[in-house]
Amino acid sequence: MHKSKILLVDDEPVTVLAETTRLKKHGFAVQVLNNGQESIQYLKKHDDIDIILMDIELDGELDGIETAKKIHQNHDLPILFLTAHENPELLHRVKTVESYNYLLKDTSGQMIANAIHQALKLHKANQKIREQNKRLRQKEEQYRKIVEGSRDAMAILKNSKLLITNQAFARLMGHNQNKLAGFPIKELLIFDNLEEKLNTIRGKTNKASETFEFEMVNAQDSLRYVRARLIKIEIQLEPAFFLTLYDLTEQKELFKKVEKAKKMTDELGSFIPICASCKKIKDKEGNKDIWIEPEYYISERLPEIKFTHGICPDCREKLYPQYFDASSEQRINQE
Predict the structure, then answer these.
(1) Domain ranges of the chain
(2) Residue closest to 185 by CA, chosen among 153, 208, 209, 207
(3) Fewest CB atoms within 10 Å of the CB: 8, 126, 141, 294?
(4) What CATH class has 5-130?
């Protein structure tokens, strides 16, 4: 069975002897040092200490409180302070150091042993909490890097507010990125069932996702067509969401143009009412029938087609016969 090893730092020989005897009686291993500098140097070379019992009123350059501060700069160890009397000024200074209580030197061996066991348990629990918080911070930092490094518009939501966003998200929203942190998502993405979708995925397991499309008007009054994907994650043991937005505006506009062109092509491929005499084409203007020139009819349906006007040889001879009969042609040649 592992014996907890105590570093006892005290410069009073009588106290050291009494404390060492009591501590060993309760099953602890004890290392004794007489001043702050020795204890700091010892800990640089040894990692076998579980807890420190530190006399507050050490003689020398460093008293017990200053020694504890320096130890905590490099070592994660629980410290219990010892004092011969309750000096209000010293006890106030003790509160400036992370410690697990202070004990009077005339405290019974059992009470000191109980205090040591309690301090070790608390320290172990605090270590687990710190380690867990460290992992959570690392995970959050990983999420932050994913969001900030993405070309897609991405954000992380927590409690229905924006926690992290990237530049692409800010551009799509028409906002300054620095002002988006903490912004309620419902004030950016305004459509009826957003909260319903958040609640639906909130009740699912991590990595559950939901995809949907909607129209929005951003802060620059620009209408955007957007596909959203929500993925449930966890940040600091609380539900959160990855939100990725894909701007479909150009795609939708292109699709509309294709559909319009297809419709016009279909119309051109069907029977077209055309005048047998003037060749105008019948079209609709509201509920009224109108007759328009063929080039206008086609241009309205296929605007990419451009027309130029000239005269074909047959029309030229019909319209200007004087220039094209035999004698006229001969006279023109002679001139």
Answers:
(1) 5-130, 150-247, 252-322
(2) 153
(3) 141
(4) alpha beta
Quote the tokens at residue 145: 């890097």
Written as tens digits, the pLDDT of the chain (335 aa) is 678 999 999 988 988 999 999 999 999 999 999 999 999 999 999 999 999 999 988 888 898 889 999 999 999 999 998 888 777 777 778 777 776 677 888 888 899 999 999 999 999 998 898 888 888 788 888 888 888 888 889 999 888 889 889 999 998 888 888 888 888 888 877 665 667 777 777 767 777 888 888 888 888 888 888 888 888 888 877 888 889 999 888 888 888 877 877 776 676 656 788 888 888 988 888 888 899 988 888 887 777 778 888 888 888 888 888 776 655 545 445 55
Whole-number Cα distances in Å, 159 to 24, 34, 154? 53, 54, 17
As a CATH number, domain 150-247 is 3.30.450.20
